[in-house]
Amino acid sequence: MENSGPSFAFYCVAIYLVFISVLGVYLAKRVKNQEDYAVAGRSLPVYVLVGTLIATWMGAGTVMGGANSLGYQFGFGVAIAFSLASPIGQLILTFISKKIRRQNAQTVPEVIEKVYGAEARFISTIIILLAYLGVVAYQFLGVGTLLQSTLGISVETGTIIAFVVIIATSLFGGLYSVAYTDFISCLMIMVGLLIGVPLAVCNAGGFSAVIARLPEGHMGFGNLSFVQVLGFFLPTFVYLMGDQNMYQRFFAAKDEDTALKGGLWWSLLTLLIGIIVSIAAITSRALYPDIKPAQAFIYLAQHGMPMFIGGISVAAVAAFIVTTANSFLLSIGVSTSWDLYARYFDRNADQKKMLKVSRICVLGLGVLGYIMIKYFPNILALQMYAYTMYGAAISPALVAAVVCPERVTKLGGLGSMVAGGVVTLVMEVLKKQGWGFAVTYPSVLPAVICSILVLCLFQKRSAA
């Protein structure tokens, strides 16, 4: 059948990028102080909260890596197992969402300091910066690569366009701009997935025809063992439990009930998206068995869907990337200004000065991210290490600080963060050297176990 073709897909992507850039700048007029910039004045209604949670969490990895690549390369069962990590983690966060909102904080390190002290705040801020800056840089490249495939321009030119759009939606309006443009992006993402993928399956002859064309065992777990599947599941799960982006959205909710309702819808819709992307992955494998796994969804959109829906679906890929990038950039910008500048350099800075500093940090870190991707592309190989590091070093201590602050101790929190980080590094070194245990088991498993054990070992004892 005829597909959307590069030119039509490009126009869809271009219209989307221009629209959200203009909307992002327009929404900047709502920002009057640092709290408006960092947490949208703690005013987000349910529908906007759900949209920004989905759009922020479902990044480029959703349609280029994750369930997309795993489903194409290994099998439908692996993609579904990976997809379950998000809604399970989201449900747990939803159950504690009222406690998260009650913290009345702006960043994760701020919450950590309340329980574990200033040293823990500093350590957690550095870990977040290291993890998130690599993600921002990778998203610049992701949009550049997408524009190259749809327009034929160079990746370098596309990356510059990505930089301008992402800066426009995060620098001026902060979380106000990011949250409301996320909501628009989420609508487009849902349209592209809910309509485009079923049409692609139908055009392929139906789901039974797709299954018939798959390699033997591709509806299951392929040749992967349980431990290998667990290695894909756990890093996402533990990272989500401490992801500062998600906590900042709950901080920005209008009230505790809004946080709870938003979290419930977020987990349900994320599960639905994961299933649809998994179906798209195996459909692409059945129709186009010789492409790269990362291309599965984009190729299906351009060649297996009707022109209009295919164009929207490709634009939805751009939405996945941009919404992730501006959220991560805003997050580290606010964290740098709030957790480092205000905490260690100018404790008396007022709201207006902090707003100015936050914008400077967002712009500066955005430029640094662009420099990283332009001159030091190999540094992005550290991204997955940083994700595992974040999940092991931050998540256990953070969740404990929110759920049971009366039980944990400063020594336990600091020890937990250090243990999670050190074990992650040791496992990665041993894996490089070919040690059997490190190769067989995912780094995150022993790292998280050690982190939790240290946290429990130094907890406060009840007076019995």
From TrEMBL:
Keyword tRNA processing: no
UniProt KW Membrane keyword: yes
Compartments where found: Membrane
Membrane association type: Multi-pass membrane protein
Annotated transmembrane regions: 6-27, 39-60, 72-96, 122-140, 160-179, 186-212, 224-242, 263-288, 308-333, 354-373, 385-404, 411-430, 436-458
GO molecular function, one term: transmembrane transporter activity
Top-rank taxon, per record: Bacteria
Annotated Gene Ontology cellular component terms: plasma membrane
CDD domains hit by this protein: SLC5sbd
Family membership: Belongs to the sodium:solute symporter (SSF) (TC 2.A.21) family.
Record-given protein name: Sodium:proline symporter
